[in-house]
Amino acid sequence: MKVLVVSRSGREVVRGGLEFSDAATVAHLQETIYRKTKKFYPSRQRLTLPVQPGSKEKPIILSGKKSIKDYADGNNLTVVFKDLGPQVSYRTLFFFEYLGPLLIYPIFYFFPVYQYFGYKDKHEKFPVQTYAMYYWCFHYFKRILETFFVHRFSHATSPIANVFRNCAYYWTFGAYIAYHVNHPLYTPVSDLQMKIGFAFGLLCQASNFYCHILLKNLRSPDGSGGYQIPRGFLFNIVTCANYTTEIYQWLGFNIATQTVAGYVFLVVAASIMTDWALGKHRRLKKVNLQLSSVLSLFRVWHVNHIDKCTYAQSSWRTSC
């Protein structure tokens, strides 16, 4: 089987095409492209089937686990190649974006950084500031542990540009919130409000961890499993319970600390996760509709099959 690899402009990425046996997979094709080009390693490639010019249909992305023959029409196949750019693993991405807040926040708590902002007098830390520091560090330490031991990723890599974008987001907000919560002029909330906020936040952190365990069980260790509807616990109430508990745990933190910086972060984070949740909800609804259609067809076949068997038995009894 001959495979022609072209760019979106129509230029051949590998001149003369590539020859494969019928048993070859798309993963073999990607490895071969890498050997020929010496640059585009498999995770940097996106291979799709060509679409007609002007068509609004989304191109079909080739799955590395499928056979090349599954996409071919005869003995020839043309695939469109796109360079996704330098990639990093999702674990690397998450590690660095969470490491920043974990290290930055204690700097504002333990070190006299406020001297550089004109506050030379030392001050005693309020209990809420100490608890906030432990709460914050526990959250991001938990996130790092989940990255390596809980999360299973459907995509192995992410563009390296996302490292700089995500780190800028997390590290900046980490410094912004730490500056205000640990500020010498910080005014604490009441003892009761602090306890309610941190207790609620810790409950949500524990719930968030359990939601991640449920999501982990939907995928195999290699990340396969596709889109599945999570069930159990808070997923019986909302589609993305992991995002819900993430938002509420920061609400608890802000109830206890009550700073403008913290609430700004809460609003921005909630907006981002709400957008993710709505997108995921739409995808899962589509999966559910497809599943319902398959089940409906099965029910129709099952009823017809029973009717035919009943009719055959009735005819046999009549003839006897």
Q: Mind explaining what this structure looks like?
A:
With 320 residues, the chain is an alpha+beta fold. It is 56% helix and 8% strand. It has a four-stranded mixed β-sheet with strand order 2-1-4-3, covered by helices on one side. The termini are far apart. The relative contact order is 0.08. Mean pLDDT is 89; it is low at 316-320.
Secondary structure layout plus pairing:
Layout: E1 2-7, E2 18-19, H1 26-37, E3 45-48, E4 76-83, E5 87-89, H2 90-110, H3 127-149, E6 157-159, H4 161-181, H5 191-216, H6 241-257, H7 260-319
Parallel strand pairs: 1-4
Antiparallel strand pairs: 1-2, 3-4, 5-6
Helix pairs in contact: 2-3, 2-4, 3-5, 4-7, 5-6, 6-7
What does this entry show, briefly?
By secondary structure, this protein is of the alpha+beta class.
Distance between the termini: 59 Å
User: Using only CA atoms, what is the Rg?
Assistant: 27 Å
pLDDT averaged over residues: 89
Annotation field: number of helices: 7
Side by side, the strands of the main sheet go 2-1-4-3
What's the shape?
Answer: elongated
Query: How large a portion of the residues is in β-strands, by DSSP E?
Result: 5-15%
Number of strands: 6
SS-based structural class? alpha+beta
Oligomer: single chain
Helix share, percent: 55-70%
**Poorly predicted spans:** 316-320
Largest sheet: 4 strands, mixed
User: What's the SSE pattern?
Assistant: EEHEEEHHEHHHH
